[in-house]
Amino acid sequence: MPELPEVETVRRSLNESTCDRSIISSEILLERTIAYPENQKEFNSGLQGTKILGWHRRGKYLLAELNNKSWLGVHLRMTGKLLWCDRSLEIHKHTRVRIYFEDKQELRFNDQRTFGQMWLVPIGAIPADIISGIAKMGMEPFDLHFNYEYLQTKLAKSDRPIKNSLLDQTVLAGIGNIYADESLFLSGIHPQAKSNQLTETQLERLCRAIKQVLSDGIAHGGTTFSDFEDIAGEKGNYIHSAWVFRRTGQACRVCDTTIERIKLGGRSTHFCPNCQPFICNAPSK
Ligand SMILES: [Zn+2]
Q: CA angle 67-69-75, nearest 5°?
């Protein structure tokens, strides 16, 4: 699933290509891709004649601000891809939505697994009014207020494994399986460590590591995992430099210990048992 760095990579490309061009019309090839409004005709008529002023990102959501004070929201989920292309490009069997721009350009939504969604947030509403995932979302990792105290407060009542907490979008926005494993490695924290037993020092290291791995991911243009491609079909290359993710059985890049894999919350979790020892901290009094 595309995570924050992949979605951010797409956002930046969309800003370069789609802004300030009139939307002529749109076509919905798979109805359930449109999560809102229920009436598909309202989606099409709402987009018609608008222009995109700019793309924003909240967690893994892409949000296009339209010039009539409405918003277009997109979540890529597992396999969604936005493609900026010439309208004459042959459509793919997984094409779900087509948005036609002037000059024969098109923003195309391809999605093999069909979990991806789009919302047209009506004039006068804000994305959080319509998109429940945004209303409940935790802080952005690059928010200036994101620090260990924030995590400490959010995790105070949770004894679930820290890996599971990092995947919870109501705790922190935008992190998925790859960058959760990577940031736990960089901060030397075992993925099964109980969330509310982490020390201030550990949480401080974790905050720094999260920002570090996400920045590295963005710098590499995202990762190739899950066939991620940006809107021009370019692949990212973060995965080649991953510390632990999908490196089960290989030597740790730091200490040569064999990387292990366990399942947590149904997700494969990769870690180095030497760099990330399982320490059970005494419960705080
Ligand atoms: Zn190691």
A: 90
Query: Is the whole-model pTM more than 0.85?
Result: yes
- Tell me if residue 2 is catalytic: yes
Q: What percent of the chain has pLDDT over 70?
A: 92
Domain definitions of the chain by residue range: 4-135, 148-271
DSSP alpha helices (H): ranges in 131-199?
A: 132-135, 148-155, 162-167, 177-186
- CATH number attached to the domain at 4-135: 3.20.190.10
Name the nearest CA neighbour of 22 among 104, 102, 99, 85.
Answer: 102
CATH of domain 148-271: 1.10.8.50
Catalytic residue status for 267: yes
Place of tokens 């030497």: 274
pLDDT tens per residue across span 11-66 = 999 999 999 999 999 999 999 999 999 999 999 999 999 999 999 999 999 999 99
- pLDDT of the residue at 284: 46
CA 265 – ligand 1 centroid, Å: 23
Ligand 1 geometric centre to CA of 262 (Å): 16
